[in-house]
Design a protein that fits this description.
Largest sheet of chain A: none
Largest sheet of chain B: 9 strands, antiparallel
Number of strands of chain B: 14
Helix content of chain B: 10-25%
Distance between the termini of chain B: 116 Å
Oligomer: heterodimer
Radius of gyration of chain B: 38 Å
Order of helices and strands of chain B: HHHEEEEEEHEEEHEEEEE
Distance between the termini of chain A: 61 Å
Helix content of chain A: 55-70%
Radius of gyration of chain A: 17 Å
Structural class of chain B: alpha+beta
CATH architecture of the largest domain in chain A: Orthogonal Bundle
Strand content of chain A: under 5%
Largest interface: A-B, 40 and 32 residues
Number of helices of chain B: 5
Number of helices of chain A: 7
Number of domains of chain A: 2
Strand content of chain B: 5-15%
């Protein structure tokens, strides 16, 4: 293997689970999350000769996971809009949140009501622990957009939680 | 409040994510994916990519070469048929264009074959120029060059379009090849030159606005050529000469200067009795005048040059 190439097998072994969890938070479905992560790694495998910096491979995978999750949600919405009768609902299992505390379940339900971009910002910031710059690179937006989306998301989320408690 | 919400979000995300354990994942898919990722890229993909790069490189190189060629030779295309030459000044109508090195003395090298790209009547065929004439009378400047052997014909020189060539052994000013048409007629739609017989040489003896008179080495040869070919585009002929149906241009019938010589005179002039129409043929009674406009000598015949009794005069005389 050339020195500039990425050891994708090692990268997969080290970050596969965390990427599936990230995708699971974004798409709210484990099977779809696994599909998303698989496509992300295969995409990097096809284009690894285009990757200038091997250290950026993890960022590339994360960005691919976010984009693929967005596409999966878009496809899911389209399927639900046109095949509402024939297509079974794709989403979290009925007992998916039974293991969670009431408080966490309430927060996650409020997060799921947020717009897509705001939800992505919150997940990347509070679960992945990325900085504003990293979130901006992952989502392909500016730092200002990340900041504004995060601010609106927090405000809306607070409003949802207050409404639920009252 | 905000810090509590952030902490709440972290805990909720962590609790939700931690429910996904390695046991929940599809192990078969995971194993297959690891094997695929560990394998190198298929060689044909790399080859195909190299092919794309090579093709793009060749296309770019071709475009660069084309741009360089166009830049360095922008006007390499041939002159359009019937298009007046922009390099010949208007006051030089009827005079053969000579290179600057040939303007003062005749060439001794074999004449180059000239090809007639355009001609009156649309006839276009290559006409190799020979520096030969059948005979010559002891006349003044318009002497006909002596005949030369056929070996003087050269076919390897670069053909020049619509440029009469200087007869190699003829007298100064004697040329062969197409005869340039006065610009007045070209402006009326006539072709820029009239093809001449290959063996014929001529000297321009007079020129003015809308008029050119040449002394040819063989009048009968030119007459046969004009009658048997479409040099003049099938112009109607009467006793006075040839009349263009589409312009005021007319041509005289080549006439021998005297009975002892084959040399003769030929003129292009304005047919004052004819109105340019596209379909009308000249009236039978119209007699073209060889008089150049403004000369005032109305009794001259078509074969006689204006202002000279024998029709032989030299430019500037």
């Amino acid at each position: 293997m050339a020195e500039s190439e990425v050891d994708l097998a090692a990268l997969y072994a080290a970050h596969h689970l965390s990427m599936v969890r990230l995708a699971r938070l974004l798409v709210d479905d484990l099977a779809s999350a696994e599909d998303v992560v698989q496509d992300a790694f295969l995409g990097l495998h096809r284009r690894q000769h285009q990757l200038r910096d091997p250290g950026a491979a993890l960022g590339y995978i994360r960005q691919a996971v976010v984009n693929q999750s967005r596409s999966a949600l878009r496809r899911r919405r389209t399927v639900r809009a046109h095949l509402r009768v024939a297509e079974p609902d794709i989403g979290p299992a009925a007992d998916a949140e039974l293991m969670l505390s009431e408080e966490h379940r309430e927060v996650l339900q409020a997060v799921n009501r947020l717009p897509e971009r705001q939800r992505e910002v919150l997940i990347l910031r509070f679960w992945s622990g990325l900085s504003e710059t990293e979130i901006a690179e992952t989502m392909g937006v500016s730092n200002g957009t990340v900041k504004s989306q995060a601010s609106r998301a927090m405000k809306t989320l607070q409003q949802y939680l207050q409404e639920g408690r009252s | 409040m905000s810090e509590d919400l952030e902490r709440l979000l972290r805990d909720a995300f962590e609790a939700s994510a931690s429910r996904v354990t390695p046991h929940d994942l599809d192990t078969d898919r995971e194993r297959d994916l690891r094997r695929v990722l560990a394998a190198p890229l298929p060689p044909e993909r790399t080859t195909r990519r190299s092919l794309y790069v090579a093709t793009a490189g060749l296309a770019a190189a071709a475009m660069v070469v084309g741009a360089v060629v166009v830049t360095h030779e922008p006007d390499s295309t041939a002159q359009l048929a019937g298009e007046p030459s922009t390099s010949s000044p208007s006051n030089e109508i009827g005079l053969p264009q000579l290179p600057s090195s040939q303007s003062s003395a005749p060439r001794t090298a074999p004449a180059t074959p000239s090809r007639t790209a355009t001609s009156v009547g649309g006839q276009s065929r290559p006409q190799p120029t020979r520096s030969a004439a059948t005979s010559s009378g002891p006349t003044r400047e318009a002497s006909v060059p002596p005949p030369t052997s056929a070996s003087s014909i050269t076919g390897t020189s670069r053909p020049t379009a619509e440029q009469p060539t200087v007869a190699s052994t003829a007298a100064p000013g004697s040329v062969s090849g197409p005869l340039a048409v006065p610009s007045e007629f070209v402006a009326q739609g006539e072709m820029s030159s009239i093809p001449m017989p290959p063996d014929l040489t001529y000297v321009v003896v007079r020129r003015s606005s809308g008029y050119v008179q040449i002394r040819v080495s063989n009048a009968m040869q030119l007459t046969r050529y004009l009658d048997n070919n479409t040099a003049l585009g099938g112009w109607p002929r009467d006793a006075g000469g040839y009349h263009s149906p589409s312009s005021t241009m007319a041509a005289s019938v080549p006439t021998a200067v005297d009975s002892t010589s084959e040399a003769g005179l030929f003129s292009l002039f304005v047919d004052t009795t004819d109105q340019p129409t596209s379909t009308a043929s000249p009236t039978s009674g119209s007699s073209p005048s060889a008089v150049p406009p403004g000369s005032g000598s109305g009794d001259s015949t078509a074969t006689d040059g204006p202002g000279s009794a024998d029709g032989v005069s030299t430019p500037g005389s």
